[in-house]
């Protein structure tokens, strides 16, 4: 990937040299950052607010494949995946820390590329990079991100507070990121078999972007606040709709009815699923990595939300004994099962 | 390592199963933890205090060698290394998140062993494990820890606030962790050459423990508070005394005079260094991983500290133009250079 470009070996910089190089352009955006990088710990001031903390680990060969993932996109995505957890609490994301384990195949220019994606995400979402760690890695690329945010106690949305009769809502559309991944994997296989064949991704920009450059739904948190709605429960859709619905139901001690026909699926996602011979609904239920927000609202908030193009009401919460069920397009009802991502079985299935 | 014991494959548990299994015994200690594991983010309440955040990445083959590192010790150390950064801010460590990347060679029992060390450290230091991430890893073991703490603004000790004439102090003794590592590496080589030879670590418990089971100096933070001393600057000794002194001098825009004869070195460290034909002072200056606290205090605090057995005054801060110098036992003065750990050159040197 870097054969023909400039190559500065990290050995010559050393850890402190690399840190200094990477951190010299960091800008701070959030007033809660009292002190960012450069000391033993970052110092943050959330006076009067609750502090929110979430963390994710991204490993080469498990969470991403550098054969088709540009490093800048990867840096951007690593931040989005984490910010999404703070938004899922109905909070304001304010800081991130980014730790990198770098194998010797990465020259400085590659790390800069990755970091440029990190800093772009920080800029676009106005969050401050306040710390991290960098190290050599004997194997592949390791990215660990911790995101920090804040919220007033009254605004925080947990997973375990959905009430019977609440409406089940989801932002955006689902299944696209999974199909983007299938496309990229298919083209990689074709390329490996015959390197002369050019990748055929024409007209598939949207779902490719859903996979490579997801956007955490900060805008939905703001929209809900503008509409005067506080969700009764909320979670982000990282492992697939089915898995997230079951988290809310299980932790709230409730059941639910989900309507298949209400699940938002983009036409390109739908068409590509058909091309692959997969049921589009299954992609939405079990595909994962969409980073949309799944939330429940009281019925009295329905009028405020029903004309919002980016929010779909897809079902409602029931009592626990009824279980978590999906009513199919043909009218049959069956139990929802989480068949999402199991990182211990294989990388993406 | 686990051939003869029970072996539960992580594939059969899945990510959620593993998380549930590992987190069911988590106890909470700190009143600032409003919500721990089990949601998108932890919720913490530091009302009126500043939030402190620090993070470290530990990678197999770079930061630890499983040939001689018991997993329980490794889990314990991973926490200590991170808490040390919060104490270095003169703060109270209150929460940690722990992310694990696990290759398929690790059965559940191995992960439990690692986690038992994490939980032991949490119990002994009264910090709450409030989140994390677990994933398969294609390569070795990956451990990423983020530590969170708090402090009143007036109590926080930065690195860049040392004043001219301040006394340079360090807790405990130095160089032991490095020599413990040299011993373990030597025995590993002997074992690899002849598996019938038993390791010869007799009488070396102290320095082996300095390497495998370091203790972050929470007690020193408390002692300083009890003595009514606020250090003018503070940092933890993770990369070696020389490197940390230079951080304080550079960031404070000052110089210093360090007296070689004042550097605290345990007799076993001294003796073992001689065995290896290394200068004990070099081990203290450049060895790293001691996790002691290096700090500066005003001269008026000298009387409070001078009889404390666990604190050594090793020099003083000068003006910037004088540079950072060490006066050797023979009375010569020469510039201090950081030759500490460079993770990009090799794993331990």
TrEMBL record, chains A, B:
Name of the protein: Thiamine-monophosphate kinase
Domain PurM-like N-terminal residues, every copy: 38-150
Keyword Magnesium: yes
Keywords: ATP-binding, Kinase, Magnesium, Metal-binding, Nucleotide-binding, Thiamine biosynthesis, Transferase
Binding-site residues, Mg(2+) 4: 40, 54, 85
Biological classification of the source: Bacteria, Pseudomonadati, Bacteroidota, Sphingobacteriia, Sphingobacteriales
Residues reported in the UniProt entry to bind ATP: 115, 132-133, 159, 238
Binding positions for Mg(2+) 1 per the UniProt entry: 55-56, 133
Protein's pathway: Cofactor biosynthesis; thiamine diphosphate biosynthesis; thiamine diphosphate from thiamine phosphate: step 1/1
Molecular function (Gene Ontology), one example: ATP binding
Species in which this protein is naturally found: Hufsiella ginkgonis
Gene3D superfamilies listed in its UniProt record: PurM-like C-terminal domain (3.90.650.10), PurM-like, N-terminal domain (3.30.1330.10)
Enzyme Commission code(s) on record: 2.7.4.16
GO process annotations (BP): thiamine biosynthetic process; thiamine diphosphate biosynthetic process
Note: Reaction mechanism of ThiL seems to utilize a direct, inline transfer of the gamma-phosphate of ATP to TMP rather than a phosphorylated enzyme intermediate.
Stored CDD domains: ThiL (cd02194)
Magnesium among keywords: yes
Enzyme class: transferase
Family: Belongs to the thiamine-monophosphate kinase family.
InterPro entries referenced in this protein's UniProt entry, alphabetically: PurM-like_C_sf, PurM-like_N, PurM-like_N_sf, ThiL-like
Residues at which substrate binds: 63, 289, 341
